[in-house]
Amino acid sequence: MLPDTQANFFLRLLIDYVVLVLAFLATLQYIARPEHLVLSGFNLLLMGIGLIVWTGIGLSVHLYDEFRTRSFSYEFVAILKTVLIYFCFFTFLFFYCFKHYPYPRTFTLLYAFLSFTGITVMKFIVKQTLLRLRSNGHNIKNIVIIGTGPTGMTFYDTILSNDHFGYRCIGFLDEESNPHINGKYLGRVSELTRVLEDHEVDDVIVALHEPMSHQVEEIIMASEREATRVRIIADCHRFCTSTASMNFFGKLPVLTIRTSPLDDPARQRFKRIFELCFTGILFITVFSWLFPIIAIAIKLSSKGPVFFKQERWGLKNKRITCYKFRSMAVNSDTVDASGRYRQASRDDNRINRVGRFLRKTNLDELPQFINVLLGDMSLVGPRPHPIPLHQESKNTIQNYMLRHLVKPGITGWAQVNGFRGETRLSGLMQKRVDYDLWYIENYSFWLDCQIIFQTLMNMIKGDRNAY
């Protein structure tokens, strides 16, 4: 680490140490009995072990990475990970190593809560303070941009419009000048060493369009001779999303332009286990008596089967058979006069009396829990579309097929935000897809819980788009 970076790291670590020590002492003070010595040698040893372990965990989960250009949510996730692992460590310590510790085991819960609260509040305060300082011209990093083409100018415009990032452009290097760089042309790329010697530069930003390998090598060597960090903007940046990530295959860096938390097999398994448990409980406690009642009502209201089966598209664009309670008359028309797929609409004459109630309350979707047990669908995910609507949308809706990177769901982020039902109006399907992609890129277990809860609330109070 460079000197400024080291100072920043140790300052952040020191602030965390202060918070952890105060949280430790506050916990002891709250649960200790009068005869206990709060600052005993053993407690001081435990506190020291805790600080060492916190440092190791924080470094391993990237709690002390540079969050200068990222929102606080990234840092919050790192804090949460660190505290959870820290809490697990103390739980193991007390139950297996310090069984005769004089305080109740709730010590770990209270200590974890106070630590999490204190660390989060302090880091938020520090983040806001630094943003204010940078906006006022303090805590600034000086950079040189190599490249005056579209990539270099886009980067320059970004730091100009985001002064809270805390970057100041000293100037540009390129084989030719650009009239839009406001007199900041410093010379050719070969003059980098002179520029670094004449100016105090923190970072060199390589923003060349299709740079030659020998150029990059010369830039890196010249920068490192002057102890200056080099950052390279990949030429494929225009294709990247906010969830782009880089991994190493051996020694080769590979950039993934769009990622999802569900790319992680461990998260996939956890999501699957939760769905199986949740679905199993519902079948035992609710569906065992509710399904027969609905089946009898359907049979009494109209002729035909209880279940409606329809082919739809699932994970990785594979066909699945989607189950629903039948809500329409048998052999209803599925296409209109113009040959387009006929979606269910308000006052649709194909829907029977019982079916209207089922659709209004979303009870017609319950057989899709069978799809969840079969592994074709998830509880939460992008809604699968009938094949004609799918074929119609895949060629007209931007990023439509990216919905199929994950399993389709019984309910989804788009549905609880009002984008369900008929999509004939211009822009509705695109909005649905945008919400689905946001879910895929921001998945978490707690987000799934929120969507399930919102779906239940919509079922109780009624959804205006359910018909």
Automatic annotation (TrEMBL):
Domain of life: Bacteria
Gene3D superfamilies the record matches: NAD(P)-binding Rossmann-like Domain
The Bacterial sugar transferase domain, residue ranges: 271-460
Ranges annotated as spanning the membrane: 9-32, 44-64, 76-96, 108-126, 276-298
Any one Gene Ontology cellular component term annotated for this protein: membrane
Any one GO molecular function term: phosphotransferase activity, for other substituted phosphate groups
Keywords: Membrane, Transferase, Transmembrane, Transmembrane helix
Family: Belongs to the bacterial sugar transferase family.
Identification of the protein by name: Putative colanic acid biosysnthesis UDP-glucose lipid carrier transferase
Species assigned in the record: Chitinophaga arvensicola
